[in-house]
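Methods — Computational structure assignment.
A single polypeptide chain was analysed. Its primary sequence is given first, followed by the predicted tertiary structure written as structure tokens.
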Amino acid sequence: MSFTAETCVAMHVGDRKEQQDRVALFGHPTRPGMMLAVLADGMGGHSGGAMAAEQVLIRARQNFETYAPLHETPEHLLGSVIDEAHTVIKLTRFTSEQDPHSTAVVFLLQQGRAYWAHCGDSRLYHFRGTRTVSRTGDHSLVGELQRKGRLDENGALHHPQRNVLLSCLGSEREPRIDYGREEAPVAGDCFLLCSDGLWAYFSDFELATTLQELAPRAAAERLIALGRERATGGGDNISLAIIKLVGTQASA
């Protein structure tokens, strides 16, 4: 059995004055069946965050267009997008008065396998039915406290320093990049990339159930509507990308 992918990208400005998130899906120009999804949550003053997030998308598109699987590993592609975007964002600090930074999540579907990399607190979830197969770990203060067992999920959502990042693109330090993969996805698997403007309002089970029950576009609409309702007038930018694998029976 082979797969097709049902996809959707969606955004909402939330209660902010400017949309500084960016999200996109790209098909490879010469290799059918390959797809790259990228999401970035920009930070840094008026337009600075948007500019930083835009650089992540630019690097993702350009590097994917020249990606040659015979000579380059998926991890090399994903890492190069984050590293190169970091360098460009860092350089813009010296040519403007802004202080731009960004998170990044990059997801690759290639030959029936899934690969991803991330830096910051934007997330990738892999759901199978209503079960969370994997979820990226936030490069944030509360994420670190959770990994050390000093903070639970509920405490993390309400911690006064929940927005403090320990790693991002554009900072003085080189970005921390964590990698993940799924070698054997199955029909019905869902992958969700999203910024903290979305995931802060949902449990893993809620996200998984919504993606299981609805097609990607309807799921995105429901999640944004619920997230906006739960933000009660104080919501951040929202961005998300949904990739839902659908089995196709090969003809005899």
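Note: Residues 14 and 79 are 30 Å apart (CA to CA).
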